Amino acid sequence: MSDAHGIARDQLRAFIERIERLEEEKKTIADDIKDVYGEAKSMGFDAKILRKVISIRKQDADERMEQEAILDTYLQALGMIPAAETEDAA
């Protein structure tokens, strides 16, 4: 029975150590990304907009179009952008 506990303990330790290594790698990558944003900012680019562009690029084209349409609808409802002209108005 003690062998079973030893095996489980070893497996648990291995999982924990793998997770810790991955967390360290994740932090290193996050620091690298932060450095790239800083570099872009020093070249005159807006980091907030860069993040938005990256977010948009991750989206599926159909999903992005749907979100843009909903956003336009909301902005029109709030009077923040003019309503799209319909064919009936012509």
DSSP helix fraction: over 70%
What low-confidence regions span 5 or more consecutive residues with pLDDT below 50? 86-90
CA-CA gap between termini = 84 Å
Average pLDDT for all residues? 91
Care to count the β-strands?
A: 0
Note the run of SSEs as H and E.
HHH
Strand content: under 5%
- Class by alpha and beta content: mainly alpha
Enumerate how many helices there are, as a single number.
3
Any idea what the radius of gyration is?
25 Å
What profile does the largest beta sheet have?
none
Number of structural domains: 2
What characteristic shape results from the CA principal axes?
A: elongated
GO molecular function: DNA binding
Protein name: UPF0335 protein Smed_2680
Family: Belongs to the UPF0335 family.
Pfam family, one: GapR_DNA-bd
Structure report:
The protein is mainly alpha-helical and 90 residues long. The protein has two domains: 1-45; 46-83. It has helices at 2-42, 47-58, 61-77.
What descriptors fit this protein?
90 residues, mainly alpha, elongated, disordered C terminus
List the SSEs and their pairings.
Blueprint: H1 2-42, H2 47-58, H3 61-77
InterPro entries: GapR-like, GapR-like_DNA-bd
GO molecular function, one term: DNA binding
Organism: Sinorhizobium medicae (strain WSM419) (Ensifer medicae)
